[in-house]
Amino acid sequence: MQKGKINVQTENIFPVIKKFLYSDHEIFLRELVSNAVDATEKLKALNRSGKADVDLGDLTIKIVLDAKAGTLKIIDRGIGMTADEVDKYINQIAFSSAEEFIEKFKDVDNTNIIGHFGLGFYSAFMVSEHVTIETKTYRKGKGTKAVSWSCDGSPDYEMDEIATRDRGTEITLKIAEDSKEFLEDSRILQILNKYTKFLPVEIEFGEETTFEEIDGEKDDKGNAKTKEVKKPRIINNTNPLWKKSPSELKLEDYNNFYRELYPMQFDDPLFHIHLNVDYPFNLTGILYFPKLKKNIEVQKDKIQLYSNQVFITDSVENIVPDFLTLLHGVIDSPDIPLNVSRSYLQSDANVKKISSHISKKVADKLVELFKNDRESFEAKWDDIKVFIEYGILSDEKFYDRIKGIILLKNINGKYFTLDEYTELVKATQTDKDGNIIFLYTSNLDDQYSYIENAKDHSYDVLVLEGVLDNHFVDHMERKLDKTKFARVDADTIDKLIVKEENTVSKLSEDQQKELQPFFEKELDSKSFNVVFENLSEKDQPVIITQPEFMRRMKDMQAMGGGGQMAFMGDMPDMFNVVINSNHPIVSDILNEKDEERKTTLSKQLVDLAKLSQGLLKGKDLASFVKRSVDIIK
Known about the structure:
CATH architecture of the domain at 2-205: 2-Layer Sandwich
Helix content: 25-40%
Strand content: 15-25%
Distance between the termini: 111 Å
Strand order of the largest sheet: 1-6-5-4-7-3-2-8-9
Number of helices: 19
Radius of gyration: 36 Å
């Protein structure tokens, strides 16, 4: 029997491992199963190349839980190890300076030591008071006898030859008192489903019950009789869809795999992108476009990141572009190391290349869909618009790639590219400064009267009511030459040249000054500014508009725009009370001799305009109703 100390320069390494990895303690099972898969895959590769003359037989990796004995076993039939290999790979931890390591991390919480130092097997000591390895190499000849190694979490270990056993490795963990959760069947099953669901070697854990038909036996109704059968429970799908060639798959296959990934996702995805790259890095995967809800935050954390089919994380912010986190699916790349910290993933050159490539592939797919079947693309637009806007706002290269397929929808449900829409409206919606005005509504019901007014002037109106549309509008004004966006209730609508801007006012400046105080009565001068405009007789007598810039900035700040917009939240809303100096009712009020009635009618018109904007509430609304009844009397 050989006894000795594991080759580290400190007695404290195992307590440190246990302390620092405690927040991620379930990761031990991923590490040990991954090692077993690696040993199995190596044996298969050696066998294929003719370098291992062995009968492979059943290569299933078995996870055996014995709650009564307090043990958890991980058993494989892979390449196994000789005594020399155990000494090399287990007894000599590759720390260049363990003392420096201890000093650096002793006061830091939640540090992923496995991620930084590749401890792998030693993650077992996070949850174990004692670990035993029994292993036998696939090789034959001298020095290939089976070996047992054991350690109680101190640097002391024991290693000895044992009686002949099967090829491969069996690791037995004696679970520690503070880790009894790992003696629960449900907990182990949960971890295996999370980390090993798509490993390339079958993982067996426990049993499952199925029902099989009994040959030749029927019940009273003529149905085949069944019997209950218990069989080993296989955890994983060893050949997931992303490893297959797209040419051999149908849409049904992709949708079924989507439901395998997300059992609680009841809608089929809108479409998918199958990634298959072998240069300048290796990358496979499938990304799905889900039907996005208005709350984009609830959509995130749905992309699963794998390395050689081993699950790493589903929190991929800063690993892929932020807007891509709205997608669902799987990304798998052996060029992403399994045991790495988040900061490493964010700074690694390969990860950045992968991130950039995925963004390009998504853009290419969108352009392809648009060009191949525009009608189908338009049908999906409302569901993918928030994703595309998110990408436009956050990724300049993405915008450059898809700017030709950005669609705008008008109130008639028709879709236009940016160029198409510019051509549609430039003749009728260009202001005196040569800016093309894109009119839009953010709420069809609340802004109905303004939409009707725009239609009366033969203006076209877009529908921009999405969660990111305020930011989108602001961004596109900076991108598009001589183009402005204006909501239909904004103060800029009256600056379009098709309006009868040369109409002569029926009221002189003196008459307007005479009327103004009647309309200003009881209005808060900090929030409402009364102005007279030479509008058409068919326009409303009083219209309330809001300065486009002010409203847009407040809307953007309300949904999270920071920086220079933060101060806007403390400022009151500003509105223009636009008096149509050419409307007959306004002239009637001017000519009214009864001062009290003149005040009443002016107030009534202002309140009607406020009502149309949802600005009339509480006491003011009650007064309006009473006044309306009095006027009718």
